[in-house]
Structure formats: C-alpha cells, structure tokens
C-alpha cells in the first residue's frame, strides 16, 4: 500500500500557479457582499488563500477589491443583525452566533467602562508613570502586586486608564 502511494505521488504533475484574472475583482466584491469571507472566495475560483494573498500584494486592484468586499461583508452581517433585532425578517436566526461571527471576523468588541474606587484607586493614583509600568509588568507576569487581595480582574485596563488620566 505504501509503495502504491509513493508511486502515485511520484507521477503527479507539479502544481501550477493559478493565473490572476482582472475579472476576479468584481467577482470577489460580489462574493463578499453576500457575507462571505475573502478566504472563501478561493473555493469559488479554485485557488488557495496563499495565492489570493499573493495577488493582493501584487495587484493593487485586487487589494482594493478585497477592501471593498470586506466593507460589504460587514454591511451584510450588520443588516442581518438589524433585521433580526427589529423583527423585519421572518427568518429565524441565532443572534449569539451572528455576534460571534462579528467578533471573530470583524474584531467587534464589547466596550467596558472601568471605575476605580476605594483604597486601591488612592494607591494607584499616587504612583508615578514609571511605577505604574513596573506594577503592570508584575501583573502581566503573574507576580503579586499592590492589589494584594488576589483579585486582578481588569487591573491592566485600570492601570492603563490611570496612566492616561
């Protein structure tokens, strides 16, 4: 069996790089406007994602088409969310799944507001920028710090917010 596989692979023709075609730009934009990703376009034209990345680096018009397609893809998914949230559509959907798509593909994030109060706030406000940097490095390394109580939840964001104020 191993010999058959070895013979089969030795007879294969070397892979030929796919040829770029200018009409791919419009096809890519139309594909992504339906909510699909840049990478899934490779399945439409039978090329790998690495080939398409090479084309983006080589052909400015393909790079621009990918950027336009990305915006149109975001727009598609935002419309789906709005239609589901407002009841415009009769389609049943999973809002959590769509939210996950948006977070993973389009870097959506929940905005968090952090407010410091009490003794920790007073301690942190008394530190210089250099001391805050040291404390931040300690926290990231998992070492004990001025927090002392073992609750380092959102301490990075709090320290960064204090440095900015």
State the main characteristics.
single chain; 165 residues; mainly alpha; Arc Repressor Mutant, subunit A; 2 domains; 9 helices; extended
Task: Describe the protein's architecture and organization.
- The chain has 2 domains: 89 residues, Arc Repressor Mutant, subunit A (Orthogonal Bundle); 46 residues, no CATH class.
- The protein is 63% helix and 0% strand.
- It contains 9 helices and no strands.
- Helix 2 runs parallel beside helix 5 and helix 8 packs antiparallel against helix 9.
- The chain is extended, with a radius of gyration of 25 Å.
- The termini are far apart.
- The model has no long low-confidence stretch (mean pLDDT 76).
User: Could you say what the CATH topology of the largest domain is called?
Assistant: Arc Repressor Mutant, subunit A
The CATH architecture term of the largest domain is Orthogonal Bundle
Largest sheet: none
β-strand percent reads under 5%
Using the alpha-carbon principal axes, give the shape.
Answer: extended
- CATH class type of the largest domain: Mainly Alpha
Specify Rg, calculated over alpha carbons: 25 Å
Poorly predicted runs of 5 or more residues: none
* Terminus-to-terminus distance: 69 Å
Q: Report the structural category.
A: mainly alpha
């Amino acid at each position: 069996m191993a010999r058959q596989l070895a013979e089969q692979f030795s007879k294969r023709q070397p892979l030929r790089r796919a040829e770029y075609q200018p009409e791919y730009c419009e096809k890519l934009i139309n594909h992504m406007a339906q909510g699909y990703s840049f990478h899934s376009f490779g399945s439409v034209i039978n090329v790998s994602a690495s080939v398409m990345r090479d084309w983006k680096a080589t052909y400015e018009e393909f790079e621009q088409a990918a950027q336009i397609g990305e915006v149109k893809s975001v727009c598609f998914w935002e419309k789906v969310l709005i239609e589901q949230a407002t009841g415009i559509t009769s389609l049943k959907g999973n809002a959590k799944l769509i939210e996950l798509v948006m977070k993973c593909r389009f870097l959506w994030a929940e905005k968090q507001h952090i407010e410091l109060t009490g003794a920790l706030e007073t301690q942190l406000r008394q530190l210089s920028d250099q001391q805050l940097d040291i404390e931040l490095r300690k926290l990231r390394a998992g070492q004990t710090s001025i927090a002392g109580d073992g609750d380092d939840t959102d301490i990075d964001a709090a320290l960064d917010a204090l440095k900015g104020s």
